């Protein structure tokens, strides 16, 4: 019986076991890593949305879905734009100091182009969807109503720039998603323009 240790054979067996173990680890890791990556459906849900606004009339509201949320796009009239600065004293955050919009929309109209408004149609109180109420002084909203969005769940009110009124449950203005224009009539919701943030 030979009691000598064959170190060459031991190194070969150690190397072979390491290679087989490494290959096994890779084989196990590939399905795991693949399962963590988002599905095609999930990627599509988060993808930017392209909206043609060429047929959007004055005062008309268009609703599209982006990331499972309703996004409103509407064309404001000159009268609506003239009314916005007169409401500042009635609003909780008239200058949009709470970050609910990209920096390029932190202005009086909360938009890139004054006449086109883009915002997420979800109340910042409990996530209900406010209704579009463009009419002036309807009986159910009072003589001081200048048009805007009304959340029927708990009575929150927003002006035509999505700015929240004082004394309502909603704590902040409606969210403005990242967006930009591609030419004159296409709005891309879900991504900033190159160089903007």
Automatic annotation (TrEMBL):
NCBIfam families (alphabetical): Rieske_proteo
PANTHER family recorded: CYTOCHROME B-C1 COMPLEX SUBUNIT RIESKE, MITOCHONDRIAL
Cellular compartments annotated: Cell membrane
Quaternary structure annotation from Swiss-Prot or TrEMBL: The main subunits of complex b-c1 are: cytochrome b, cytochrome c1 and the Rieske protein.
Co-factor requirement: [2Fe-2S] cluster
Residue span(s) of domain Rieske: 83-188
InterPro entries attached to this UniProt entry: Rieske_2Fe-2S, Rieske_2Fe-2S_sf, Rieske_Fe-S_prot, Rieske_Fe-S_prot_C, TAT_signal, Ubiq_cytC_Rdtase_Fe-S_su_TAT, Ubiquinol_cyt_c_Rdtase_Fe-S-su
Membrane protein topology class: Single-pass membrane protein
PROSITE patterns linked to this entry: RIESKE, TAT
Record organism: Methylophaga nitratireducenticrescens
Reactions catalysed according to its record: a quinol + 2 Fe(III)-[cytochrome c](out) = a quinone + 2 Fe(II)-[cytochrome c](out) + 2 H(+)(out)
Main location: membrane
Cofactor note: Binds 1 [2Fe-2S] cluster per subunit.
Function: Component of the ubiquinol-cytochrome c reductase complex (complex III or cytochrome b-c1 complex), which is a respiratory chain that generates an electrochemical potential coupled to ATP synthesis.
Pfam families recorded: Rieske, UCR_Fe-S_N
Keywords: 2Fe-2S, Cell membrane, Disulfide bond, Electron transport, Iron, Iron-sulfur, Membrane, Metal-binding, Oxidoreductase, Translocase, Transmembrane, Transmembrane helix, Transport
Entry's transmembrane regions: 12-33
GO MF, one example: 2 iron, 2 sulfur cluster binding
Protein known as: Ubiquinol-cytochrome c reductase iron-sulfur subunit
Matches recorded under SUPFAM superfamilies: ISP domain (SSF50022)
Keyword Metal-binding: yes
